[in-house]
Amino acid sequence: MEKTSLYFHIPFCRRRCGYCDFNTFDGLNSYIPEYVDAICQEIIEVLAKTPNPLSVHTIYFGGGTPSLLTIGQYEEIFKTLSRNVWIEKDAEITLEANPETVTRNYITELKALGFNRISFGMQSSSPEDLRILDRRHKFESVVNAVMWSKQAGFLHINLDLIFGIPMQSRESWRNSLRLAFGFGIDHLSIYSLIVEESTRLKYWIDRGLISEPDNDLGASMYEDAMDILEQEGYQQYEISNWSRGEESQCRHNLQYWRYLPYLGFGAGAHGFYGNIRTQNFGTIPQYLQSLKDNRRNDFPASAAVCSTITLSQWDRIQENIMMSLRLTEEGINLDEFHARYGILLQSLFREQLHRLTARGLLEFSDQGKHLRLTRRGRLLGNQVFIEFIGNDIPKGYEYLNR
Ligand code: SF4
C-alpha cells in the first residue's frame, strides 16, 4: 500500500492577525457545520477513486484555527476517514491550535479522540511583539495550553515562534526562545516575519506607523536560534524546524520535504500525487458550492479542485531539489534521487554544484551520499534554491520534458 499523508485546511479565524496573508477568514464561523459536512463529502469522493489502496501515515489539520471545530465535528471527520481509508495504527495526527481558543477539557478530548501531536502559535512571549503582530493571545494562555497538553498525555508538542518583528530586540527574542524551550517540549518551528502585501502590518509600515523589520538583526536572531537550541539539545532538521531527536520530527511535514504524496482537503488546500498538483477553490462559499455542483474530476482531484497541474519529470526534479534541500541534516539522498529519476543529480547540475560548494553554501555529507546546505547556506537558502529553478533542460536530457 502506498504511504500517503492527508492535509485538512480549516480556514476559520476569530479575527485576522495584522501580518497574516494565509487563506483564512473571520466572521464566517457560522459556516463551520456546513464546512465539516463538505469536507466529509470530499473525503468520500476522493478516496473512493484511488487507483491503489492508500495507507495513511500522517494527518494534519492546519489553518486558520482548527481548534475552532468542536470535538463532535472531529469525530464526524474521523468516522468518515476510517470508513474510507486505511489509517496506520501509529499514524501521526496533528492539530494546529491557537492557545486562546482551547480549554483543558477540549485538549483532553482531542487526545482521547486520537490526536497525538499538537502545535500552538506562541509567536513571542513579549506583549509588545504580540501587539505589533496584532495577536489576541497573551503568553499566559500558551503556558496553560502547554500544561494542559502535557497533562492530557501529548508527547509531541510544537510551538511556532516568529523573529524579526519590528522593534523586537535581540534580548527579547532570546527571552522568547528561553521560555519556549523551558517548557521541555519536543519541537519548535521558528519563522522569520515576512511583511506581506495587503496586510494591515504592511499598511502600518508604509505609513511610517511601525518601523520596517531590520534584516541584519533578523539574521543574527536566526543564528541565536541555531546556537541556543543546539546547546539545549534540539537538533535542527529543517531550515525552520528543530526537534529533540528523530522521533520528534514532524512526519507530516517530512512528507512534503521528501517530495512524497499527500492529498489536500478543504478550501484552498493543495495536493500532490504522482505527477499531479491540485488546488481547491479558495473561498469558503466557492468551496461549498463546488461540492454541491459535484462536477466530475478524476483522482486525485475532487469536485472542489479548481486547478490541476501535470508536472513533467524536469519540473519534479527541480521541485524535489528545492524541497529536500530544506532538510538541513538529511538534505537530498543522492541514491534515492537516482532511483526516482534514473539520473544522477550531479550530471544535471554540474555547474551549479560547483558554484555553490565553492561559495560554501552546499556540501556533500555522509561520504558523498547526501547533498545539503551548510550553516552559511541555511542563512542564504534563497540564493541556493534559485540556482535550481527555471533552468533549461541540459542538452541530451530533453526526454525529461515528459
Ligand atoms: S490566527 Fe493564524 S491563521 Fe488566523 S489570522 Fe492569525 S496568523 Fe492567520
Structural description of this entry:
- The protein has 402 residues and is an alpha/beta fold.
- The chain folds into 2 domains: 2-255, Alpha-Beta Barrel (TIM Barrel); 332-401, Arc Repressor Mutant, subunit A (Orthogonal Bundle).
- Helices cover 39% and strands 23% of the residues.
- It is built from 16 helices and 17 strands.
- It has helices at residues 32-47, 71-84, 104-113, 127-133, 139-152, 170-182, 200-206, 215-231, 251-257, 284-293, 313-324, 334-341, 345-348, 350-358, 375-379, 381-385, and strands at 2-10, 12-13, 25-26, 54-63, 86-97, 117-123, 156-163, 187-192, 235-238, 241-243, 262-265, 270-273, 276-280, 305-310, 332-333, 362-365, 370-373.
- Helix 1 (32-47) packs parallel to helix 2 (71-84).
- The longest helix is centred in the middle third of the chain and has 17 residues, at 215-231.
- The radius of gyration is 21 Å and the shape is globular.
- The two termini are 26 Å apart.
- The mean pLDDT is 96.
- The structure holds iron/sulfur cluster (SF4).
- Iron/sulfur cluster binds at residues 13, 16-17, 20, 22, 24, 63-65, 98, 121.
Give the gist of this structure.
The protein has 402 residues and is of the alpha/beta class.
